[in-house]
Every structure is written in structure tokens, then in C-alpha cells.
Amino acid sequence: MRKAKTLLAVYLAYMLEYRAELFLWALAGALPLILLGVWTEAARGGEFALSPGEFARYFLMVFLVRQATVVWVVWEFERDVVEGRLSFRLLRPLDPFFDHLAAHVAERLARLPFVVLLTLLFFWLFPEARFVPEPGPFLLGFLFTLLAFLLRYLMQYTTAMLTFFTERAVSVEEVFFLLYLFLSGTIAPLEVFPEPLRTLALLTPFPYLVYLPAALLAGQKVDLFPGVWVMLFWGVAFLLLWRLLWRMGLRHYSGQGA
Amino acid sequence: MSAEPIILAQDLTKHYRVALKEESLLATLRHFLLRHYRTVKAVEGVSFQIARGEVVGFLGPNGAGKTTTLKMLTGLIHPTRGKAVVAGHIPWRREKAFLKKITLVMGNKQQLIWDLPALDTFRLNAAIYDIPEGEFRKRVSELSEMLSLTNKLHQPVRKLSLGERMKAELLAALLHRPEVLFLDEPTLGLDVNAQVAVREFIREYNRRYGATVLLTSHYMADIAALAERVLVIHQGRLLYDGPLAGLLERFAPYREVGLTLAYPLPREAFLAFGEVRDLEGLKARLLVPRERLTERVAEILKSLPVEDLEVREPPLEEVIARVYKIAPSGLSETPALEEA
To answer: Most buried of the four, A53, B53, B121, B254, by CB within 10 Å?
Structure first.
């Protein structure tokens, strides 16, 4: 417990050194707010599964979920390996997985005020997005946002393990990101996907990273099952893959640059 | 000193596969499609033992295999072959109990968080190594006093000088009070004062806590001040294991005499005094047998137009190159330099 508290406190102090950057990072995640404008406008003139108000709420929640689940560990890990800094992390009696995780959580806390500010700004710009959430689904949505963050972190950390073998795991992550962008519900809610594509998307881990928590938070009617099992399946799959690649990677590691 | 060695290396070997690439566009395209590799033998069958509390210097030119050996002994990399036991553990299993007993300081790398005061990194390490709060404060105060760093702990690391940063690195690396210290070029790039301070600290740490130290350095002064015993490694093979005095006596029984002359002289003018290593304009560098140094220096001053004269230890790399030339397959009893 003391370990977690100290890690958080030190990384929070570190993140607060980058106030201006934090604001820009939060702003860089504003794509859903642009899409919010596009889709609410489109919904006014056409037949869609969601009303303009529902679109606005959904994209606002996508914005918040993405702010809460931003992960960059693959970039950090790749830099650590290439520059030889991984050696320091390996010398400590703490798995680097948790070290990076603490830095992510601390960054989230430091980012919070900027996110609240941006949300208030968009409530003012798009009054149709304002709503009073039902406590039950909203809390469930909150829980799934947390799970989405953990799954996204685990997925990206597993990808980062490829650095041991290729030193350019970021390229693999960029392919993943393309799939993430289209299948997670960031560009459009899954309700507007053609049926076969939607069925297919729901078998991948991506909709559980954005769509499911955002739809729950926005108060949309969502079927939790069998989605939860799919999410659990991917969680376990990536967990096993991470441990396997970690073990193989350490045997392969040459500690270059250190 | 206990009889059981705290560091044991047996036939430790590490081979790397390195992708080969020639210059030219065609070679680049070929490299993209099909890679060719060659095996680099970084460390080849190295064996030694170090007893608890010993300070051992690890010598060798760049690329000799020093750092690779340290990386195997600290568990960062797996060996291709061979066995190692450090503080009762197989290093590359990276058990928590093992990691708490060792530390590695690298002069060219830092673990301190750049934008925060060093104290924050110490606090982080204290939590990671399960050091209780009271004990943490006691150790920071003790170590920072030994390092004369007390008033620098609250400054962001980026504002510290190179010497202060290295001292803070040492503090961060020793906070968990490791039994075995692996120090890879800890004085790299430091000015003479900082080098002396770091050296003094390592000596004091070893004396106070009985820690075992394996130290690599390019500065002969570091090794001479700290280590009574040295290991010499070259091209991945261990060439010498024994006292430092024995190494110099056996492999470099000469001193280097640097001369600045009033006017240039031909090479023949120096042959009577020693082996001429360099002669360029007014500068000359001679190797003179150690036992005849006084006599030869007196002769030089009497016979040559000397403006300045300097006597120094031969450069470490030269000694090691000589060791390798003379003893390609291990220890040798052969003297290094024929009488000049």
C-alpha cells in the first residue's frame, strides 16, 4: 500500500511539472467532440438509430472515456529498451508493469482539472449534451471505464513486449490503433454500424475499450452479455501473452546501450 | 572474510547475433529483404571468484566484455553458457531477494528522475525496496553526509552538476544497502575533485558496511586507489587475475617519459634512453624500464635540450594491449618489455 501511495505521489509530482503539456494532451483528445458536432448535425437531417441528443451525449462520454483510458506505455517501453534505461527498471524488485501503471494513474489525476474544464466548455457549446444520469448505469459505466483502461493498458503493454524482438513495437501499435479507431466506437457508435460488421466488431476487444463504457455512461440501453465474457476472454488472453512474451523477451534482451 | 565466495563465475559466456549491413543502396535493399548475421563473442569462458568484502578492479579496453560480464552478474542478461552465483542466487532468475542484495551504477546512465529533486527518487526507491520511513531518513542523512550532498537533495536533478548527479546516483543505488556493488565507470566524465570524492566514498562504504565491490574504470587512479586485486579481460577472455602491483610489474615494468624539446632531434638521438613510442616535432614519448628510471632521466636532462619532462604510468589501454600481445591464451610469466 505504501509502495502504491509513494509511486503515485512521486509520479503525480513529476506529471505536474508538465502542466502546459497536460492541457495540450487533453485537448489533443478532443476528436470525439468534433465528431459530436458532425453526428448531431447529420442526425437532424437523416434517419439514425440515435437522436441528435443521444449522439451528443454519446460522444461527450466517448471523450471522457478516452481521456480516462489514454495509454502510451509502448512508447515509453520502446524508448527504455533502445536507450538502455530498461536495465534500471529490471534491477529494481518491482515489475516495470506496475511502475508504468502508477505513472499512468498519476497522469490521469493530473489531467482531471483540464478534462473537467473542457467538458464544461462543451456543455456550454452543445446544450443538447446536458443530461442528468441515472446513478445505476452511470456507476456501471464508471466501473467499465476502469476495466477498459486496464484492458487497454494490458493490450498495449503486451505489444510493448515485442520491443525485445523488433525494437519497433510502436509500428505494431499503430496498426492496432487503426483497428481501435474504427472498431471501438470512437468514430461512430456501434448502433450505426451495418449488422455483420457490428457482430464482428463485438468479438474483438475494441468496443469494450470505448463503446461499452461510453454507452453505459450516456444512459443508452446496452446488452452487457455476452460482451462481458468477450472482454474477459481478451483480458485473460493478453495477460497470458504478456507473461509469455516477457519471459521470452528477457532471455532475448541484450541490455544494449546500457 | 568468509571462505564462501560472494561472486562466482564459471565458464561465463555470451555470444550475440548482430545483423550485418554493407553500405550502398543495393546492400540496403538486400538488408531489408534478407538479413545476414554474424556472431559476436562478447564474453568467452570467463571464470573467477570474489570473496565477501573484496574490492576488485575489472580492467579492459572498450568492447572487451566488462559491461557484458557485469550485465550477466546483475541478472540483466542471460548467458549463452556457463554458471554464475551472486550472493547465493542465480542472477538471471531475478528473484526479489537477489535484487535487494545488489546494485549496479553505470557512469553513462542515470536512474534519477530528471525534473524532480533527487530526494523524490530516493523516496521512490525506499518504497520499492521496502525501507521503513525512519530507516529511510537515517540512511539518506548518513549517505548524504558521506557524499557531502546534504544541501543538494531538494534541488531538481537537472540543476545539479555532473559530479553532484553522480553522487546522488550513488546514493539512490545504495539506499537499500546492497551487499554487492557493481560499478561500471562510476567516475566517467567527472573532474579530478569529483573523481577523488567518489573514490573516497566507495572506499568508505566498503569499509563501513563490508560490501563487496566489482569496479570497472578507465581511470587507472580509480583502480589503483580502490582495488588490490584486478581482473583483466580482453576480447571476451580473462587474461589476468591477481594483485594490481603484480600486473604492472609483470606486464608493464616501465614508465612513460614525455619530453618537450627546445629544438627537434632525429629518432636516433633518443635510442640510448629508451623505446621511442612517439616523436613529433618538439614532443617525444619514451618508454623507460622502471628500475632504471632515475638514472635514465638524469642522463636525458644532461644530454638533451629538454624544456619540460613528465614521468607517468603508461596508459592503461597500452598495458592491456601489451598483456594481450604477450599472453593471448591466459596468464603468463613472460615479462612485458625487453630491456631497452
So the answer is: B254
